[in-house]
Amino acid sequence: MLLRQLEYLVALAREGHFARAAEACYVSQPALSEGLRKLEEELRVPLVHRERKFEGLTAEGERIVVWAQRILADRDAMTSEVAALRSGLGGRLRIGSVPTASTVVSLLTEPFCTQHPLTTVQVQTDLRSTDVIEKLQSYELDAGVTYFSRNIAERLEFVPLYLERYVLLTQLAPGAGRLTQVTWAEAAQQPLCLLDPVMQGRKVLDTVFEEIGAPVRPRVETDSIASMFAHVRTGRWASVVPHSWLHVFGVPAGMQAVPLVNPTRTERMGLVVAKRDPMPVMAQALVGVAREADVAALLERVPR
Fold it and tell me: What is the Cα–Cα distance from 21 to 178, expressed in whole angstroms?
């Protein structure tokens, strides 16, 4: 069995298309198909449903691709560790985050890159919490930043970073003073622009509104925090945003960010990596950075 054949299988599972999988592996489609056929012969099970086009993996193929992902990830981890021992940590760190935590990632990547100048970083910031978990378990990410949950605790290593809390972002009314706080019930009466209902950040808000007996039906829903800021800018909508976004942008001119109370709700946010022994050196280095960084304190530094 060749590792290259396992790479073909993983690429086909990921791309769902023979030609795209071959392109991703930098081989011709006949070469990829022949490599998969030889893998099937060696394992003595069919891995791929073959018609005129890719019809999916067989049940055996679905199981084998999990093993293949693990084997290839261990190969990459071993190679990275040997390289680090020889000349220092290098290679690409792949981080994914939920949108509400996307501004926090830079508080980890900056010290990481400073400590490890031979590395590069790839960041995905449009993932749902479930996407982060799935991509970590399929070895498509080295680390993620997301919400704490029992599911996370059971399946991944979780390093606490900060407590997410929420503010009502709204336009300042002409001649009106700034509010010092607002209740969730009062926020529910506003014309709201919120995150898409499938996103964990929105589910947290919906839970609070339902607990106080004030479920909301926002006029605008989006998968982008930046889009929420833009909609508030029009003066027609208000929004509930995580305080972690304020440390980058501050409170835009003409707006106010009012702490939400009754209840005061927070959510645990942290860095997550796959449970592996030994832990890959790239993930291990980022975990070290996360434990040293005082992310919670940095988030309180709101630009004026």
Answer: 56
- Determine the distance from the C-alpha atom of residue 101 to the mean position of all C-alpha atoms in its chain, rounded to a whole number: 8
pLDDT at position 1 over 70: no
Contacts of 13 (CB under 8 A, 6+ apart): 57, 61, 65
Which tens digit of pLDDT belongs to each residue from 247-291?
Answer: 887 888 889 999 999 999 999 999 999 998 888 999 999 999 999
Backbone φ, ψ for residue 3 (5° rounding): -60, -30
Name the H helices within 147-199: 150-155, 184-188
Give CA–CA dist 8/187, Å, rounded. Answer: 52
Supply the pTM of this predicted model.
Answer: 0.79
| CB-side neighbour CA atoms (13 Å) of 224 | 6
Q: Is 227 helix (H, G, I), strand (E, B) or coil?
A: helix
- Residue pair 224/99 in contact (Cβ under 8 Å)? The answer is yes
Task: Please report the beta strands in 2-100, taking only residues with DSSP state E, as ranges in sequence order.
Answer: 48-50, 54-57, 90-97
Name 271's bridge partners: 145, 159
Burial status of residue 178 (CB atoms within 10 A of its CB: 0-12, 13-18, 19 or more) = exposed
Label residue 217 exposed, middle or buried (CB < 10 Å: 0-12, 13-18, 19+). Answer: exposed
Using CA atoms, how far apart are residues 190 and 164, in angstroms rounded to an integer?
22
Q: What rounded mean pLDDT belongs to the chain?
A: 91
Strand ranges in the chain using DSSP code E only, listed in sequence order: 48-50, 54-57, 90-97, 118-124, 143-147, 156-171, 182-183, 193-195, 220-222, 239-242, 255-261, 266-274
Please report how the helices 3-15 and 59-87 are oriented relative to each other, as an axis angle in degrees rounded to 10.
120
Q: What is the largest CA-CA distance in the chain?
A: 78
